[in-house]
Amino acid sequence: MAAVIRAAILTCAAALALTGCLGSGGGDEPTRISGDVATVYSSVPRRGVSASAAAQVLAGERRALAERHGRAGGLRVRLGELPATDEPDHPWDPGLVAANAQTAADDPTAMAYLGELDYGATAVSLPITNNAGLLQVSPSDGLTSLLRRLPGRPRSGPERYYPTGRRSFVRVGPSDLDEARALVDRLSAAGARRIAVVFDREIYGRELAAQVTTLARDEGITPVAAEEYRGRVDDIPEIARKLGEAEPDAVVHLCVAGRGTIPMLVAIGARLPGVPVLASSGILALPEPALPPEPERIEAVGPALEPERAGHEAMRLALDAIERGGRDRRRVIAAGLELGRGLATTRVVVYRPGPNGHFRRAPARFSSR
């Protein structure tokens, strides 16, 4: 998947450089839409681990639009729903995500694009919508490099996502850096001084692992092992063996939930009994109820906003931006960026496994720094 993502981004960049065909907007397209109808597109997965959250996000988007009677800025606003994946084994499909963004870019009525839902998919769609001059609002994709450089990686900046040279993206909810800070806070509170990290091969896992290890070192916590899970369940025993040999005080799980999640937790528990496991929000969408051994030693961090609320906030921000900007896409982007600066929805909270195997919010809450 990582290679496909990189290929999609490079293809977008090459198209921009050679033909300007990343979107019908480009630099020469008029910034004002004609007519009295504007379209807000929403890109969410129909299947896979995020399908349930996606349905809730869509419900929130529809509710926000209905509350405004489908109007903003003197325009009738309609919602265009697009599938970010139809595959059960992947949270999103780079080809479909790119096609979704291109659909919005090619639509002369398009005013905003709500997406992507999570796990770095915005890295594929954002260069396309940015070149088309569209405001993009993500309900929950926390990929840090979309808006800032990664700690310890000065070359991993957001410039590559903005071919126009102008920002056009707003997120609702915390960034992955907020989650990384929360994880390190929890590690410090638990007295951990040696950690082992397991991450997946997606852009989500790789970036998050770099952030966690950098912040951990700053707090005097030593990463003693880092193992990449490439989606092959047969590799899990060897990964767990290597994690166990490092004798960590805690294990940090930075993978998107999937069929390997429970086997991974079981294998880690067998190799490191009693050692706490801290996970990022990628684990929250476990595909089916299941409890590994010693569930009390597992906790995760994730956004405080429920998916339905996140979708509602994303659509409301887009409609408020259209209300201010009217038919002018550039004014809509400017309004969206200004509104985004006022968001107070970046809180990260703790989740723990409930009796049914799904993670639920723990009674104790905390805010990321």
How does this structure look, described?
The chain is α/β, with parallel strands linked by helices. 38% of the residues lie in helices and 19% in strands. The protein has helices at 2-18, 51-67, 94-106, 122-131, 176-189, 203-218, 236-245, 261-271, 307-325, 329-341, and strands at 37-44, 71-72, 75-83, 110-114, 135-138, 169-171, 194-200, 222-229, 250-254, 277-279, 298-303, 348-353, 359-361. The strands form two sheets. It has a seven-stranded mixed β-sheet with strand order 8-7-9-10-11-12-13, with helices on both faces. Strands 2-3-1-4-5-6 form a six-stranded mixed β-sheet, with helices on both faces. Strand 9, helix 8 (261-271) and strand 10 (277-279) form a beta-alpha-beta unit. The longest helix has 19 residues, at 307-325. The radius of gyration is 20 Å and the shape is elongated. Mean pLDDT is 87; it is low at 1-28 and 365-369.
- Classification by helices and strands: alpha/beta
Output the helix-strand order. HEHEEHEHEEHEHEHEHEEHHEE
Total count of helical runs of at least 4 residues: 10
Question: What is the helix content?
Answer: 25-40%
Task: Walk across the major sheet and give the strand order.
Answer: 8-7-9-10-11-12-13
Outline, from the CA principal axes?
elongated
* Largest β-sheet summary: 7 strands, mixed
Separation of the first and last Cα atoms: 32 Å
The residue ranges in which pLDDT falls below 50 over 5 or more consecutive positions are: 1-28, 365-369
**Estimated share of beta-strand residues:** 15-25%
The rounded Rg comes to 20 Å
- Average pLDDT metric: 87
The total count of strands amounts to: 13
Assembly type of the chains comes to single chain
